[in-house]
Please model this.
Amino acid sequence: METPRKYRALRWIGIIASVAAWLVAVIGLIGLIWVLSNVGPNWARTLLVVLVLLWGVSTFLSFFVRGTVLLLLSDLEQQARVNAQTVDQIRSLLQNAKTTVTPAAPMTMGRTEPRKTDSESSAASA
Model:
């Protein structure tokens, strides 16, 4: 039996955050290329490159981690419900079982009488 997914909005927010993270990464790279090609003096270029890199990396990581954590929590909750449903099915199968298991009789390996031990066989021969 299929367990329906819950928290669809939370999953969509996680997906949107992950996509936004990659968009921010692309925008950061475009901004970095623009800064490297259009800014004049070296000290200003260096400062802008550092600022654009810090902004891009921190924003990317922020969105990416948030999206991934939301998707992870949603999947974790789904798996917990599937496991609970499976345990309930197993429990109901065990409760509804009509037959009982009886222990098997000991095997004699073709003999009809029990095997004699060494002490019994030496006492019988004496």
